Recover the amino acids of this structure.
């Protein structure tokens, strides 16, 4: 088995008495698509926040490719190779989709040259290819504030993709996207990720998507990792179904 | 040819031609260009949503550095003094910016205001160094070792300022189109996301702040040469307010906007002082409010609309 | 040592006036979320109207005993006229605009008022110190006190107490707190937010005008009064924490004391003191002494 790309051990954090992360332990292996499922409030987004430096754990450690990243700033962690998308899309609202993605491309390549334009040819080509990948070519020049929620979600993902990260963390990537488009989005996303050898973990509520696309599933409940393993095994476990879906 | 280049050419032509017909406009235009540089500095920060109501600090600093060095006969060359004043202001900008760019919105504004008022008070009180409320005289500068009379100096200042505008304006335009410059409006909307792209917001803002301080210092130095005298009032908060006013009046979308705003401001000022001194603030206040409500892109946007109509099929 | 006490009283009296400006500014900021540069204009209007009213009263033979109440009348006139007019007729069109533009709009208003004052009242300085003379001087323990200054300090403390009581115990106070915390939710619950806005703004104008009126017997009126008042008011309001009534009082007190110390040790630097304190406080506590932060959710 390969060495894990991300390792979390004994991670703790509490918000005013609520244990959002309670002795969390998880490995994410290179090249896999890990689904993170669990009821609302079980700590899934918190885990993403912990891995990306938005929240500082009170205990435990998180490391990326063997390197300790606990307590680093989001900027530092991003530069080390983790990119994320958000539950509420975080975009540069007054600018166009292209300008948004260009900023991500420039951030990855070369940001600090004061005399060369953001929209230089090489960057524009790369940005357009990312926009093409997520299927938003017709919205390239639209101000993102005008886009419907589902497209803003995709734009958010595009920004993360443009960073060409080692590890991509997606927070509910298909929420806000219509049901018939969910599968085609995931198809596109996953084939692109495979082409670029990106490892990804995604928080998801749609069990069918999880069944189809995930290599492994980690189930969260009350701040802990309740179960982890092969989707078919985990999802047929009665305890899991009861905890997550509430089925008896 | 691009709009800004045409616009600059048109503006320069208008200025130069009108001066031939109305000679006293020369002084007014120099003042306008001086304040234009400072207002441009303010405009850069406004792009990131940061309003500095304390930029008169750098404006006054540039002016006093010029007066101090020139008066002490330490440096006498016009060009050298302008360069020194600009870089000294930029250096001050780095030092102050290091603290100040951690703040946002109203707190950024207030901290800048506070610092400028501290500076103003010091200028007014430290008589031995700054001449107190009397200020300092600005000695006539030399240009490549030659001395000129006031009238010639003024002409040199006008054409020199226009050249500076062209040169500095061009560089600034490239800066504003670069990733660092384009990051400024992104910071206003979502600086968290920028951090999540791995970009240091602090570094982007500190760079912008330093550039804006340098520009304000350059403006102050030009003002010092034009007027021949520097006073603590150059750093009073109402001057900072004027700079923001000029920036918004002219439009922060382009590099020329603040200069258009400054020319409008100074010309109206001169006309008003001649005929109705007690209504000058009133006129400017009304114009500002009208522009904010009805022409948010400023005078520059008016020109852009005009140009678009010209190119309509 | 004895000479220090009158100095302190002097400083506290000045602090009392600044408190009136700062607390009004803070109040308007917390309710309307606008930093009102024209607040300084209301201060100077209060001063001008007080002086004019006093001089008019003198010419009509009104007893000097009315000189102190007339100051309040002046403030009330300014507030009654300009409060609703400016807020309803003008400021409300700016509520949807970005902060930077809102400040600029109030700056434009300030400029307009500056010239209006010059046009109405002229540019020469005026003086009307009847209230000052009325109250005279008292000698306590061998030290002479200017009673007017003691009254000023007392009025400031009273105003602080009244404001705190109003916010905590009256319906109006609770409405203000509701609108400040969450305007939309308050409106959903039937609170007429625009009435609260107008009332709060008018109260702010009254406090600023009162500050000006109360200061006028000792400092007179001249153009430029408003500019000085607003920048000092900003400083103190920021030090105390924008929106904090108690903060404004504490900040005014601290700045007042700091100025007295400066006058005692290094009089040259007295004008620098309020802004230096402001820089120091803001560097350590960006939200002011009593200010609060709100967190962001993603």
């Amino acid at each position: 088995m390969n060495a894990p790309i991300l390792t979390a051990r004994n991670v703790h954090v509490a918000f005013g008495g609520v244990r959002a992360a309670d002795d969390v332990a998880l490995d994410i292996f290179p090249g896999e698509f890990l689904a993170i499922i669990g009821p609302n409030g079980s700590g899934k987004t918190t885990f993403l926040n912990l891995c990306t430096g938005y929240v500082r754990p009170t205990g435990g450690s998180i490391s990326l490719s063997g390197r300790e990243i606990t307590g680093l700033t989001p900027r530092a962690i991003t530069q080390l190779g983790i990119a994320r998308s958000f539950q509420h899309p975080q975009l540069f609202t007054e600018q166009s989709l292209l300008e948004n993605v260009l900023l991500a491309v420039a951030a990855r390549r070369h940001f600090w040259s004061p005399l060369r334009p953001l929209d230089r040819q090489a960057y524009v080509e790369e940005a357009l290819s990312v926009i093409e990948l997520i299927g938003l070519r017709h919205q390239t020049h639209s101000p993102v504030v005008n886009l419907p929620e589902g497209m803003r979600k995709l734009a958010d993902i595009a920004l993360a993709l443009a960073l060409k990260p080692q590890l991509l963390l997606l927070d509910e990537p298909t929420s806000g996207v219509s049901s018939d488009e969910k599968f085609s989005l995931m198809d596109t996303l996953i084939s692109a990720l495979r082409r670029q050898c990106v490892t990804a973990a995604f928080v998801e509520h749609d069990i069918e998507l999880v069944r189809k696309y995930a290599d492994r599933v980690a189930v969260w409940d009350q701040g802990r990792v309740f179960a982890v393993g092969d989707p078919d095994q985990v999802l047929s476990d009665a305890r899991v179904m009861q905890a997550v879906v509430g089925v008896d | 040819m691009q709009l800004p280049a045409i616009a600059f050419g048109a503006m320069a032509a208008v200025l130069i031609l009108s001066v031939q017909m109305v000679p006293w406009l020369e002084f007014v235009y120099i003042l306008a260009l001086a304040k234009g540089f400072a207002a441009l500095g303010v405009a850069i920060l406004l792009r990131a949503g940061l309003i500095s109501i304390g930029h008169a600090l750098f404006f006054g600093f540039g002016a006093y550095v010029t007066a101090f060095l020139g008066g002490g006969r330490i440096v006498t060359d016009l060009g050298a003094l302008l360069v020194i004043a600009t870089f000294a202001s930029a250096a001050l900008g780095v030092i102050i910016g290091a603290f100040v760019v951690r703040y946002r919105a109203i707190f950024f504004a207030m901290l800048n205001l506070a610092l400028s008022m501290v500076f103003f008070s010091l200028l007014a009180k430290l008589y031995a160094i700054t001449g107190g409320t009397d200020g300092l005289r600005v000695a006539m500068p030399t240009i490549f070792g030659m001395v000129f009379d006031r009238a010639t100096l003024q002409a040199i200042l006008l054409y020199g300022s226009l050249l500076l505008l062209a040169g500095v304006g061009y560089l600034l335009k490239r800066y504003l189109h670069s990733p660092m410059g384009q990051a400024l409006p992104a910071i206003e909307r979502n600086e968290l996301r920028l951090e999540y792209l791995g970009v240091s917001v602090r570094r982007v803002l500190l760079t912008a702040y330093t550039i804006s301080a340098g520009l304000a210092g350059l403006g102050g130095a030009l003002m010092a040469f034009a007027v021949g005298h520097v006073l603590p009032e150059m750093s009073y908060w109402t001057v900072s307010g004027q700079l923001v006013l000029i920036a918004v009046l002219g439009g922060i979308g382009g590099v020329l906007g603040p200069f258009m705003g400054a020319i409008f401001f100074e010309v109206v000022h001169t006309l008003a002082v001649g005929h109705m001194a007690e209504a000058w603030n009133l006129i400017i206040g009304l114009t500002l409010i009208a522009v904010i409500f009805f022409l948010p892109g400023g005078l520059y946007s008016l020109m852009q609309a005009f140009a678009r109509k010209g190119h309509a099929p | 040592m004895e000479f220090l006490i009158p100095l302190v009283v002097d400083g506290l009296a000045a602090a009392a006036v600044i408190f009136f400006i700062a607390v009004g500014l803070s109040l308007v900021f917390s309710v309307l979320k606008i930093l009102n540069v024209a607040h300084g204009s209301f201060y100077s209007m209060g001063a001008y109207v007080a002086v004019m009213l006093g001089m008019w009263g003198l010419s009509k033979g009104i007893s000097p005993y009315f000189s102190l109440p007339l100051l309040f009348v002046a403030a009330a006139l300014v507030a009654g006229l300009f409060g609703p007019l400016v807020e309803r007729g003008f400021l409300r069109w700016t509520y949807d605009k970005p902060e930077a533009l809102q400040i600029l709009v109030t700056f434009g208003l300030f400029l307009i008022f500056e010239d209006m004052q010059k046009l109405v009242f002229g540019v020469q300085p005026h003086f009307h110190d009847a209230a000052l003379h009325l109250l005279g001087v008292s000698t306590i323990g061998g030290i002479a006190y200017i009673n007017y200054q003691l009254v000023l300090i007392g009025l400031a403390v009273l105003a602080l107490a009244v404001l705190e009581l109003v916010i905590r115990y009256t319906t109006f106070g609770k409405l203000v707190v509701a609108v400040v915390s969450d305007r939309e939710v308050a409106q959903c619950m039937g609170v007429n937010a625009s009435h609260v806005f107008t009332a709060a703004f008018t109260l702010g104008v009254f406090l600023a005008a009162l500050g000006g009126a109360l200061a006028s017997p000792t400092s007179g009126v001249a153009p430029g009064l408003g500019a000085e008042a607003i920048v000092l008011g900003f400083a103190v309001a920021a030090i105390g924490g924008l929106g904090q009534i108690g903060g404004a009082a504490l900040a005014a007190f601290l700045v007042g004391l700091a100025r007295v110390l400066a006058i005692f040790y290094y009089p040259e630097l007295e004008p620098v003191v309020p802004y230096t304190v402001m820089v120091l406080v803001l560097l350590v506590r960006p939200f002011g002494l009593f200010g609060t932060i709100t967190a962001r959710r993603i």
Observations:
- The interface with chain A takes residues 171, 174-175, 177-183, 185-186, 188-190, 192-200, 203, 207 of chain B (CB under 8 Å).
- Chain B has a mean pLDDT of 90.
- Chain B is about 75% helix and 5% strand.
